[in-house]
Amino acid sequence: MTHSPNLVLTVLHPADSVAVLTVAGEIDVDSAPALRTKAMELIRQGRPHLVLDLAPVEFCDSSGLNTMIGILRYAKDRYGSLSLVAAPPHVTRLLDVTGVGVLMPVLPTTSEALEGLVAPGGTNEGHGTA
Fold first, then answer.
1. CA 11/CA 125 separation, integer angstroms
2. Does residue 70 register a pLDDT over 70?
3. Which of 1, 18, 32, 122 could connect to 63 by a Cys-Cys bridge, CB 3.0–4.6 Å?
């Protein structure tokens, strides 16, 4: 688990190339670098398919939005993907108003995001925190 002043990041590893990063708290100019660092670290560690669970996000500003765009580009450059899950209304509104929602659609649940990423009967190395 990673802590920043107003941000808590928790990681699950449901499959070899996938990480689910739950983001809790505020994504702003102070905390966005911690999110970016953790996400890029996971991708570099061989988990290019990243799912961001945004359900516990209390606040997200343009810094958070720019961070998500940067993570998406970084993942795609490494043949990966970024999925957003369970974003609260204030985050989906930010995505919609800026047009970024077209690049990063929000799925209702982590299970739906994982459907296309985790092969049925594939390896499941369990989960833990990082």
1. 13
2. yes
3. 32
